Amino acid sequence: MRAFWIPDVCFIAVLYPFVCHPLTLMRLAAFCFSLLLVSPLLAQGSDDCLSALAISGPGPHAFDNSTATTDGLADPLCLAFGSDQVEQDVWFRWTAATSAPTLLSFCGQTTVDTKVAVYDGVTCNDIMLACNDDACGLQSELTFPAVAGVEYLVRVGTYPTAAGGIGTFGLSPQVPIVNPGNGHSYLVVHDGPDWHTARAGAEAMDFNGLTGHLVTITDQAEHDWIVANLTFTRPWIGLIQNTSSSTYAEPGGGWEWITGEPLVFTFWATGEPNDNPAGEDYGEWHGGGWNDMLATSTAPSEYIVEFDGLVGGPSLFCDPANNTSGGQPVTLENSSFSGPGLFHLEADGGPLDQFGYFLVSAGELPNPVTVSQGLLCLSAPLGRYTGVTSATLNSLGRFDAAGVLQNLTGTSSVGSGYDIPAVLPDPPAGVITSGDTWLYQLWFRDVGGVSNFSNGIAVTF
Questions:
Q1: Which residues of 300-326 are buried (b: 16+ CB within 10 A; e: fewer)?
Q2: Residue 224 belongs to what H/E stretch?
Q3: More confident residue, 180 or 34
Q4: pLDDT digit string (tens) for 96-111?
Q5: Rounded to an integer, what distance in angstroms lies between the CA atom of residue 307 and that of residue 205?
Q6: Alpha-carbon distances, residue 423 vs 13, 36, 385, 419 (angstroms)
Q7: What was the pLDDT predicted at 134?
Q8: Comparing C-alpha atoms, which of 189, 198, 164 is closest to residue 77?
Q9: Is 442 exposed, middle or buried (0-12, 13-18, 19+ CB in 10 A)?
Q10: In whole angstroms, what is the distance from residue 326 CA to residue 322 CA?
Q11: What CATH number belongs to 177-307?
């Protein structure tokens, strides 16, 4: 670890500004401030696992393993190109701020041939959660299931025989994207394990209380949405050939989804499946379509996780929202199918006496946009329930002392929240019909004239 040095002249400029000419003082201030801006990047990691360097936030976090030794153990999870070791390793201790699948990425941030691993806990014998060698060229990227408040060990090193060096990496929560067509959520995990490890990784993930699984693609509409909204190169999918099935025959018989859903829609690449070599009983998506592969292959570079929505029910996303001035996020988790409307929205956790209204959209932004103090997660066109065209489309409310949004326009059957009518505001215009999925957020004012947003909720009607 390198110490951070602040020149004595910076302390003099702060403690005794009257000894400096005004122009000199301005130049010193700019110089000293620039040092503060780069100071986080001067923490390079510890060469000793027992004294791993504490870091927090998304980064970028700097590393330097130019002269590092190897003190971590080899692990089968790290097996790639004939080696299960991470050499010239430096260590970091990172605390998760939110519970979400988290992306650890070195892509575009170093020229080192990196190899990295993440451990569940901060003792050197804890369980390895994920390991990656090459994800973007010779650089590493992986996703692991993080839990808010839990510390994780991050081990940064190189592929054996590769030279160490310097660079940076980032740690960022990955929010699954909601498919409005079926209410399910999807996440691409940029890691290239074998099929069984990918399946276990998917099933270890949780999103809004829903357990993940390798993606199952049951119709053309779901396929088209995945192609349009997810970025991937060669992922594992939840397709297997059941050799015990009554329909089993090589190469095309007995294929089924791991969830038990019927294999009706297919997207096999030309000439596939071909069971060549024998034992190719697991599905990947490669190039022009699906391909049968050996379960032990690590050629696929990622896997797609699907979180099934509750049938006929709501699913939270972009959760949790940013905190309010009161130190907690506003949530729509108590919304439900109740009241005279098609759905009843409830907002809790808001700042006293502040106003808000609900928004609606057909889609979710892959990358939420920061607006004032909050995150806008809905894509355009964006509808506002502000009563411009109809009194029933006015959701204006004000938070009470308990943090509950009380309706001010008579459009709630219980006094709080809002009863969604069948008619949509314009935009997006139209009428909600059975089978539709619409996404909602609350926009609200906060203390000091700033604004914020709640989490989002996707509702299939």
A1: bbbbbbbbbbeeeebbbbbbbbbebeb
A2: helix 220-229
A3: 180
A4: 887 778 899 999 999 9
A5: 9
A6: 64, 53, 11, 12
A7: 87
A8: 198
A9: buried
A10: 11
A11: 3.10.100.10
Q: C-alpha distances in angstroms, 224 versus 59, 146, 221, 265, 267?
A: 34, 30, 5, 12, 11
Residue that has been written with the tokens 């301005």 in this structure: 26
Q: How far apart are CA 116 and CA 50, in angstroms?
A: 17
HSE value, Cβ hemisphere, 13 Å, CA-based, for 84 = 9
Q: Among positive and negative, which fits the CA dihedral 68, 70, 74, 75?
A: negative
pTM value? 0.55
Give the whole-angstrom CA distance, residue 192 versus residue 290. Answer: 17
Q: What is the mean pLDDT of residues 40-58?
A: 82
d(C-alpha 327, C-alpha 460), whole Å:
31
Q: Is residue 247 classed as helix, strand or coil in its secondary structure?
A: coil
Instruction: Report d(CA 436, CA 422) in Å as an integer.
Output: 11
User: Which of the following CATH numbers is that of domain 44-173: 2.60.40, 3.40.1350, 2.60.120, 1.10.287?
Assistant: 2.60.120
Q: How many CA atoms lie within 13 A of 285 on its CB side?
A: 21
C-alpha 245, offset from chain centre: 37
Taking a C-beta distance cutoff of 8 angstroms, is the pair 218, 265 a contact? yes
Beta partners for residue 304, in sequence order: 188
DSSP designation for 420: E
Phi, psi at 415, each rounded to 5°: 95, -25
Q: 76-97 burial by CB neighbour count: b if 16+ within 10 A, else e?
A: ebbbbeeeebbbbbbbbbbebe
Report which DSSP code applies to 155: E
Sequence-separated (6 or more) residues with CB below 8 Å from residue 430: 424
Q: Which pair of tokens denotes residue 175?
A: 């929010």
Distances in Å between the alpha carbon of 434 and those of 426, 431, 449?
20, 10, 39
